[in-house]
């Protein structure tokens, strides 16, 4: 299908993460090695407290690992500054959070425009792109200026997706996105991930502890006590 | 720092619109601070202008020569009571090149009587040049001329207060009044000029020729004061030097002896008075500015609350690509807009207070654009200064922790 199908997008080498809480050091990740290729639909499973979110935060460039190297599209990002990481998140990664995480003070369209403003687009350009993304997730024009609390839960979910894909991120990351959803909405969300995975060849990384949800992915790993265990 | 400023400003306004009461209370400190700066400065500038006006009203380029010695501790026997200045001095001074005109004065308080009416007024013996030097025209009749002064005529020109007290609504011109038991014919009435800066009624005045005053009322051969009008503002200092030289020569003062007169330059006095009014204004404004700082602390307080409340929002913004400076800028703009808003309301309130003061009190207030502009700049500066710590705190949040905040 795609000539880049085998291109490595993410490579983790001996990643370790230690949380320091006062005098106590907690080793949340131990010697993680992982390769994710372009266009993969990837799930990370594991029990609560096993280290999934810790791993996801490192993958999403929201946090830096204590040890090891992280190559994102061949760039070593494990040593970059906070601002450089912000730039990488802005350009390459779209997040779908549990509970959507829309900014309540901003209208639907302003929420979707946000990543584009930080990317330096003008208001006009951002507006055009945001409208496109909203149409893609079936949010009609007359709801663009509503605030998140004025639209339904399903619509909020779609706005959150629009924000994640508005700048054509090559990687979509979602940490337990279905955690608060009923099965209908959860299926709707997963179908959407499947769709952009197929249509845009976007890499999808999904953290979940629900096997039904993980079943949408094509590749799986399981984390247990900070280790990756093979399925 | 790519996020457009205009959007931050817009977003700041939205935040305040959602929390109207809180935003208003937060800016109250700034509002009161700016309003008190504006009001005090307007009082100070009004006072400064009043001093200027009062001195200008006394005549331009005016020099006042008094008997006595300034470097011996001023007039030791009381205002103008040393017998060192004479009419002859005044006449000689008039001929100096830098001098336009002069008037020699003697002032005394006397009863003025017309039929049964009796009024205590300030009686001023002066020269025919008085209306010119004091810029004080006659509205009815006319002022006495040089010939009437030379012949010590029994004529008087009265101020409006004296006219009203003695004659009511009648025209006083042509009537005979008694001053010090000497009959004087009223030949004119001076224009009403009201109170001076010291609260004295300047219209409570009777002017008579200086010669008549000396011979028939005071019984003295010297004058209290000689007022000189220099040809121009620049000439006041030249005139001062020429008069000093002339009087020293006429009074036969040897070189090592001090002057037996002294000269006050009203231009200099005006400058001193207005600069001390300015210092006074600055002091008042500085005191008022302290409340601006207190207002700034109020802003800092509420911005810290706001940063905490919006931790999650900050996390989301960081996750989608906001850098430290983007967050810093957002909150700095928010605090500046907040204090600017307070500043604008404060200016409105200050203008209102300043107008009210000028209406309900005898103080005269003046508002220029400078204190308004300075207040605007200052309130934005307060917002930036006191908003910096909360904004810095926000920009240093860890995105993971901020996102986890509920
Ligand atoms: N900021 C932190 N400080 C200290 N310990 C943490 C922190 N974040 C997570 N942990 C600990 O690390 C372990 C893994 O957490 P996490 O990655 O959130 O697990 P999961 O997402 O799989 O439930 C847990 O024991 C958790 O308590
Ligand atoms: Mg988790």
Description:
The complex is a heterodimer of chains A (231) and B (406). In chain A, strands 6-7-8-3-9-10 form a 6-stranded mixed β-sheet, sandwiched between helices. A 4-stranded antiparallel β-sheet of chain A has the order 2-1-4-5, with helices on one face. The model of chain A has no long low-confidence stretch (mean pLDDT 91). Chain A is 34% helix and 28% strand. Chain A is of the alpha/beta class. Chain A has one domain (41-64, 80-230): Rossmann fold. Chain A is globular, with a radius of gyration of 18 Å. In chain B, a hairpin with a 2-residue loop joins strand 6 (176-179) and strand 7. Chain B is an alpha+beta fold. Chain B has helices at residues 5-18, 20-57, 87-94, 130-133, 146-150, 160-167, 210-218, 235-250, 266-309, 311-319, 324-360, 369-395, 399-404, and strands at residues 62-67, 99-114, 117-126, 138-141, 155-158, 176-179, 182-190, 205-209, 225-230, 261-265. The model of chain B is unreliable at 71-78 (pLDDT under 50). A 6-stranded mixed beta barrel of chain B has the order 2-3-8-5-7-6, surrounded by 4 helices. Chain B has 2 domains: 5-54 and 286-404, no CATH class; 83-259, no CATH class. The longest helix of chain B has 44 residues, at 266-309. Chain B starts with a helix and ends with a helix. Chain B is elongated, with a radius of gyration of 33 Å. The A-B interface holds A 57, 60, 62-63, 82-83, 86-87, 89-91, 95, 97, 101-103, 105-106, 114-115, 117-120, 122-123, 163 and B 2-4, 6-7, 11, 14-15, 18, 312-313, 315-326, 398-400, 403.
